[in-house]
Fold this protein.
Amino acid sequence: MDRLYSKPHYKHQSYDEQPSKYPSKPLTAYSLEKHSHSQGNHPNRSGSAQSRASTLPPGHIAINLQEGSREEWARQVKHALTHPDRMRAANELDAKELPQPSTSIVQEHFDEAMEELTKVDPRIPNDIGRKAIHLLSSTGILTDFDLSACYVRELPQTGMLALVMPLPEMSRFQMPPPFGGQTLVTWALGHGTTLSTAQLILMEGKIRPANWAYHKNPQRCHMPTFGAFYIGRQIANADKNIPSWAEQELLDSMEKKGKGQQEITIGAIYRGSVEHLSLRGGGNEKCQLNVAKKGIVTTPEKYTIAHSYHVGLKFIAIKWSDLKDDDQLARRPIELKDTDSEDNVNYRANEERHAAKRNR
């Protein structure tokens, strides 16, 4: 069981939000607090608890329907915080617990890897190849990687190409046990992330739960998390790897989501014994609590949250725009003095436009 820390550390926001984006209390606390303050500004308002208490018959107490409205939240936070099957989020780790990536690569090894990757598909841009080699080398898996097994996947819906790199068979990428002890449901998952976060994911061999903000007062604390956010597709239980149709759907669909448009996509598989729960409301906090019970949940925003202890990594992918169709179009020569805005060719500089206005 992971050791719990009294307060998360925010120096290493690796999975994936910056600490400044987290308020110091759950969103529900704002409305409650605002309501409480508005009552406090009018202590003698008709119907308030204070005014009612002054007119109560002897032996009576006031009925207060607002009392206890935050206790339920506090109970849920305490339950999640001490749950034995909750993996710590990245911002709960001490700096010394975070793996340290390599910062250099032997030039000869880099050149050999680039040459091998170029043979995979001539459409791979040099910058994408360099990014891939640097990522693999910094995480210590380049020597175990079969670059000839990589391939380019076309994504027709979004006009993108993706360099897909299946992860090697090694201990850190072994599938974890299924949620609930048996495999009755299997999901293919896609997780969008940054290069720096992808380094930590590949070095640990796991995708930690989404970051959350701690507060010593459980009524003001964010809900501790059990899983990360993905785009998901249910696949056959017999599938040991993500089938090509699901891989293409995940990569294409992720490009339509803000989170999926990040530099790196991690492909993964979840296995469990309980059918997923589809929530149409209730917020991410409710979704995270149900991940602890069900293992996998789909959110009202069509994301999938899967229990981090039961997700195994399968591939990494880097996407770029497919411009081949545009390259075949006839080009109109650019005339530097052309100012016809209807042609959408170029635009006048600010100085030229301002001068034209002054001369009118």
